[in-house]
Structures are given as C-alpha cells and as structure tokens.
Amino acid sequence: MVGRVEAPNSKENGWTKLVIEDRDPIGSVDSRLFGSFVEHLGRCVYTGIYEPGHPSADGDGYRTDVMELVKELGVTTIRYPGGNFVSGYRWRDGIGNQSQRPRRLDLAWHSTETNEFGLHEMAKWLDKLGGNELMEAVNLGTQGPQEALDLLEYANIPSGTALSEQRRANGSDAPFDIRMWCLGNEMDGPWQLGHRTAQEYARIAAITAAGMRQIDPDIELAVCGSSSHSMPTFGSWERTVLEETYENINFISAHAYYQPVCNDMASFLASGTDMDGFIKDVGSIIDATKAQLKSSHDVFISFDEWNIWYQDAEQSQTPKGIGNWPVAPHLLEDIYTAADAVAFGDLLVTLLRNVDRVHAASLAQLVNVIAPIMTVPGGGAWRQTTFYPFSQAAHLSKGGTVVRSLLTGTGHQTDKYGVVDDINAVPVLCADGSLAVFAVNRSLDRSNRLTLDIGPTGSYKTVGMTTLHEEDYTLANTVEAPDQVLPRKNGQVEFLPDRNMVVAELAPVSWNVIHVG
Ligand code: AHR
C-alpha cells in the first residue's frame, strides 16, 4: 500500500487504484491453500459428514448432501482428527470392527468419543469426494514418538509388517500414502493436554520427525508454531522449535481466529492486518533460523487453523460436570453474518497475498463447528455466508498465480490497527489465463471506486463482477432462510480496453470478485 490519501471522516466515496505489475508473480497458489479441517468436535464428524440412517446417507453412512456441498466449496486437503482432540486421541481406537471400538472420554471437548469413525472412514470419505488429500495429525500431547511411528507404519507401509498387515486385514489393502503430517497441535497453549515448554516440545518434535523420516523419507512434516499471534511465547516459541527441528521439517504452523471485540467492527473487518503481520513475523524467524544454521533447506507456513470464531460467546456453553459427557453435542455452532463473510474475505485475500510463504492452510472447520456448511441431524444441509468467499476464491485460484500489485487509495481509522486501506485486494492470474481480482471494502460507510490498471489487456474481452453485500450487515443464512446472503451479479463494473483499465464501484462492507476474461 503506497501513497494512501487519508479521508477518515469524509462521507465522500473512497477511491483505490490497483496497478498490476507486469505479471511478476509472488508465487503460484498451492492447492493446499484451500484446505479445511475435520476434528472430532461437536457435530463436525457425527451428524456432520457421517450420519448412518440419514435420508441422504450412502451405504457407508456418509451424508451425500454434505459431500455435494464440500465439493462445491472447493476444499482440497483435510486436516484430521484434531485440533485439541488429537492431544488425547489413541488412533488405534478408531480402527478395526466398528461395533467393538471403545467409547472414550474426550477431555478436550468434554464429550464421549464413540470411535465409530476413524482413519479408514476418513480415508474412504476422501476417496469418495474425489481423492482429496489427508493431512494427518499425531498425538504429541499424551502420546509420543512411538505411537506416531506406529501410525505412520500402519498408514504408509504397503505390506509385510505387523502394522501394515493389520491395516490390510482392516480392509485397506493399499496404503493410505499420507504425505503431510502435523506433529501435535497447539502445544504452546496451556489449554492443550500435554502442553509443553518450547524446549520440551522441540525435543519431542525433533525425535518424532527424525524417526518418521526414517520410515518414509518423502513425507512432509509440520511442527507446531503459535496458537495465535498474541501468545506471550510468540516468537521465542518459533525460534526454539525451528532451531531444533529445521532440517527435518517442511512447515511451521500458524493458527488465528478473529471476532469483533467490544463491537469494534472497523478493526474486525480489517482482521487481515493482524494475519499479515503474523505471517511476516513467522517468515522473518524462518529466514533468521535458515541463516543461522547456514541451511539451504526451505520451511514454509502451514496456516492450518484460521477463521472467524465468536470464542467469547462459546466459553459459557461448554458442558461441564463429572456425569455430563455427551456424544456429538452442539458446540461452536457459530452463525455467520454478511459482515463475517467480509472479514473472512479479508483473511482469504491476506493468505493469497502471502503465497510465497503460506503453502498450506486449513479453514477451521468444515461442517457445523465454526463452519461454512451446517446440517440438521436427520434434516437438511445449508451454506453459511462464509461459504461463498471461500468457494469463489478456491475455484478461481486453483492452479493460478498471484501477481504483484501496487495499491494506492483512501484509508480509514481503526482502534486496533490505526489507519488501514479501505480496500484489501489481490490479483490472481487464473489457470485458464483469465484474471481474477478479489477485493474487500472494509469501510463501514463508504463506497469505493476501484480502478484496476491491468496492463496490456491481451485477449481480454469481458469483465464480470459479483458482490456479497447487505444493507444490514448482521443478516445471516439460517436453516429457515438459507439463501438470504449470497454473492450477486453486480453491473457496477466497466472494462475500458483502450486504457487497459477496469473500474468498479465497491459497496461498503462488501466482498467482491472481479473476473476479466
Ligand atoms: O478449531 C477449534 C479449536 O481451536 C481446535 O481444536 C484447536 O486447535 C484450536 O484452539
């Protein structure tokens, strides 16, 4: 952002110019950027993706109405099975005869885990979806390296060992061939079962990584970074963990959730500012570690939990008590507004602008739990407002390249981030040669005239725009009214080929997709 003209108190329309710089790429969009996350939490698995007996369930109990929505969403990789859940999970509970699997206490979410659904069921579901990639997390909370090594042997060794033969006997002749593994979850968080200091975690992660690589040298490993940018240990945690594990890992994770604090909508809509700073800070620590170790190896960021989450409202709903361990309770079932979809879009734009650093990301989570897809047990499934920015960006960006751009324009004041640009935008050169620009107007009250300088227009002939915007930005989709908030075709866009320009009017609090083809 350069040369911002500040007009914070003006009611006049804002303006923004986005100059696309000679198609110079920031990086290609890794398909893993559009991953999501399925945790054994609330109704994400049970009555979410899996509900035997549901009218839409197939012979394996998978809800086909949900599968159709997952495909439409455009999700790629699925991180599984947690989350906080994984830090107390015994993976062996979830294999073998379903009727004989143990019921266990899930301490993370104060629930009962029936283990009806486990690794085989997840792998089969992904196959049915069309071969989506599984990103498996291992328990480094209550378990350690041996259980992780056993799980890797069970999953990836073709045959001829006790564990690989057990997998085959359990119905999966071919190995699952899982490429990407998370070494624990949020181990920096005091709430995490098995929470450790950075040094303690770094040693266990290093030992586990080295052993896993001995079994399968080509797997990709992600160590835990910080659970949020604001963790008191942020920075020193990353440095310690990277120093100890650097050569044996491929990713360090980052997690971030945003919500309006004290109804400060202006800051909330600019949440990408914090996420961008988080990515830049972790990137600097990766670079410093690489230099210090004189390494030629590269480590990237796996932003493997991100979303809007009304965490403050949730805490009071968590069931407690020695006798209260429900199966698949209603937890974290946030309903998202139009404003939430715009803040969410701001995060998506931020992830795309950082594709040189972020090679994997997981929207947390996929169904029912802070999710773009909601279900009614025994009933229908519907799309939340956040479904749309994700699916539009996923479908248009896959196989594409993020090109460099220079943004100039009006800004406004926020309590948390000072003056921010009214518009946050990113151009993506799509796989088919067309150009998509994802643009968020973060201003609460000002429209903004966005001028795209797209350079030599080549074969471009047409432009189209869709906008997600509601006069009342608190409007949400619900089971009764599932299609209230949608991106709609917006004619307020013009292609000026003589001047290599596209001009669009962006409403306040809006998510926009401009597509030049
Ligand atoms: O996604 C919900 C929870 O948020 C995950 O279980 C945990 O990793 C994070 O704190």
Automatic annotation (TrEMBL):
<comment type="similarity">
    <text>Belongs to the glycosyl hydrolase 51 family.</text>
</comment>
<keyword id="KW-0378">Hydrolase</keyword>
<keyword id="KW-0119">Carbohydrate metabolism</keyword>
<protein>
    <recommendedName>
        <fullName>non-reducing end alpha-L-arabinofuranosidase</fullName>
        <ecNumber>3.2.1.55</ecNumber>
    </recommendedName>
</protein>
<dbReference type="InterPro" id="IPR013780">
    <property type="entry name" value="Glyco_hydro_b"/>
</dbReference>
<dbReference type="Pfam" id="PF06964">
    <property type="entry name" value="Alpha-L-AF_C"/>
</dbReference>
<dbReference type="Pfam" id="PF22848">
    <property type="entry name" value="ASD1_dom"/>
</dbReference>
<feature type="domain" description="Alpha-L-arabinofuranosidase C-terminal">
    <location>
        <begin position="304"/>
        <end position="510"/>
    </location>
</feature>
<keyword id="KW-0326">Glycosidase</keyword>
<comment type="subunit">
    <text>Homohexamer; trimer of dimers.</text>
</comment>
<dbReference type="InterPro" id="IPR055235">
    <property type="entry name" value="ASD1_cat"/>
</dbReference>
<dbReference type="InterPro" id="IPR017853">
    <property type="entry name" value="GH"/>
</dbReference>
<dbReference type="GO" id="GO:0046556">
    <property type="term" value="F:alpha-L-arabinofuranosidase activity"/>
</dbReference>
<dbReference type="InterPro" id="IPR010720">
    <property type="entry name" value="Alpha-L-AF_C"/>
</dbReference>
